[in-house]
Amino acid sequence: MALLKTVNSQLFQAEIPYKPMGKYAHFLTIRITESYPLFQTDGELNKARVRAGIKDKNTISRLSMFKRKQSTPERLVGRELLRKYELMKPEECEYNVAFAMDNPDCIIYGFAIGDSGSEKSKVVVDTAFSITAFDESHETFTLNAPYENGTMAAKGEKKSDGKLDGEIGTVTARLNQQDHIRPQVFFPSIVTLKDPTEASFLYVFNNILRTRHYGAQTTRTGRVRNELIGVVFADGEITSNLRWTQAIYDQMKANNALNSPDPLDEDEVITAAKNTIEALMSEEFIVHTDFIGDAFEPLLNEVKKLTASETGITSILQKADAEAKAYANKHISKKKTAARAGKE
Predict the structure, then answer these.
(1) Torsion angles phi and psi, residue 167, rounded to 5
(2) Which residue from 19, 25, 31 is spatially nearest to 200, judged by alpha carbons?
(3) The whole model's pTM is what?
(4) How many other CB atoms sit within 10 Å of the CB of residue 66?
């Protein structure tokens, strides 16, 4: 039985196919920082030197949010739900250690276990870029590690003559500087699901909506909110994150909405994002069905209502799990058998 009434069932696959069948669901997402996250490699924030816009040919540095920084937190949220509703046993499937190979996370997001088997991810996420320039989007903090008394000074130690080594003690040298991304920095990002079934579509949709922390030190910072502005069903891939970001920059510049050093206005960003993706989609040469802006609201409300109840989320997870196990029994077991036969 179909779970969604706002989407034509013909846009979904009836079951997870073994080979690509040319159906794509593209989730149009604006990722908005709400604290001071870290998207870094080797201790430095990730950034790229690119053109400011499509029309604006000036070159600027932009913050980069690499694909694994986006997909890993989202799949971990899905795994958490699978464990909560007892569709995944922790001892049988541990992320990056031992994959069970037959649950929605493994089949939809993929896995690789050396000679034991692998499955290519059906979720495609590319690097996202900040709309604003690097210099406007980050700041440097000095970090310290205070002692238990709440100060930066250790209690003086006793010398051999019994006197304290200093009245105040030694001030700690445990200081460090770290660049952080500022709040209200916007990263347009397109998450693509290949050959979606209705259940896998809802599973990925729910993971994007629920994920709240991205980047390093996710227990202390990294708060990010995902604003979905639409979904595009197509028979191919659509524009890149970078081109969409550049188009948004061009429109906001034309509207005098870039008021550095003030953060961007969220309403203006969302409006520009909708307008530019519609313009970019009009230039595509693929068959596509767009749910953007007002057309997206009924679908978004239906999904939120479905995922907000225990009955609704259970129905999504159980259907996704049944599809994943059917796929694993049909295709993964054959690959494992073939691998064993090859060794013999």
Answers:
(1) -70, -40
(2) 25
(3) 0.87
(4) 16
280 within 8 A of 247, measured Cβ to Cβ: yes
Tokens of 295: 């057309």
Give the pair of three-digit tokens for residue 167.
Answer: 């009245």
Is the backbone peptide bond immediately before 146 cis, with ω within 30 degrees of 0?
A: no
User: What's the mean per-residue pLDDT of the chain?
Assistant: 87
Return the amino acid letter for 292: I
Query: Residue 279: how many CB atoms within 10 A of its CB?
Result: 12
Q: What pLDDT is attached to residue 134? A: 84
Q: What is the DSSP letter of 232?
A: E
Report yes or no: 281 and 288 within 8 Å, Cβ to Cβ. Answer: yes
User: Which residues have C-beta within 8 Å of that of residue 43, sequence separation ≥ 6?
Assistant: none
* Count of alpha carbons within 13 angstroms of residue 221, beta-carbon side: 14
Indicate the angle between helix axes 198-210 and 310-327, nearest 10 degrees: 130
Q: Which residues pair with 30 in a beta bridge?
A: 188, 227
Give the Cα separation of 26 and 135 in Å (integer): 31
User: What sign for the dihedral angle of Cα 255, 258, 262, 263?
Assistant: positive
- Of 126, 127, 107, the C-alpha closest to 117 is 107
Asked if 46 and 37 touch (Cβ cutoff 8 Å), the reply is: no
Which pLDDT score, from 0 to 100, does residue 193 have? 98
Question: Tokens at residue 106, please?
Answer: 């493994």
- The stretches in the chain having pLDDT less than 50 are 138, 164-168, 174, 218, 337-344
The residue to which tokens 């493994």 are assigned: 106
Assess contact for 96 and 109: CB atoms under 8 A: no
